[in-house]
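Subject — a protein and its fold

Tokens — whole-number codes for backbone shape
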Amino acid sequence: MSSYKDLQTKIFERDNYTCRYCGKNSREYRALVMAHIRTASMCGDDRESNLITLCRHCYNHISNNEIRAKFETKENADYFWGLYHEKVKGYCYYTNYIKKVFTENGVLMTRPQIDKYVSIFVKNDDNFNAFKAELQNTGYKNMPSKMRSDVRKYNHQVENQSKEWLLWLWVYIH
């Protein structure tokens, strides 16, 4: 058995092959699903305390928020909140700050445009402080076009590196 199957069997056995939401009991593997209380997007992982048994019907008809509200323990919530906070605090803060400053200064720039820039260039507080200094030098009105230009240059560099790698691979193979 694979490690996933082993874990699934362990969770099903722990929950006595019973859906934790509706109470339906079944020894048929196809009727049950191992589900996450806190999903990966919320920093959930495959810890046993984050996994429950659900029947297929409940799994397909109940939202992740309902599952988390009903089954998450305080210990799990505290643990995952710490992970989630560390993962997104900088990214969300940087994006929200830039959007707020642009809006206050009458600069229209969409959140996806800002997110793209932040995901490439603003990895930590030092990068963010450099961005703020550049914002002061460039000016609020000119900054969006500079940000779009930087993203285009970055994408072009990545594309060229990919082409160089493929060329190297082709030469190596032949």
About this structure: The mean pLDDT is 81. Strands lie at 32-36, 51-55. The longest helix spans residues 74-104. The two ends are 41 Å apart (CA to CA).
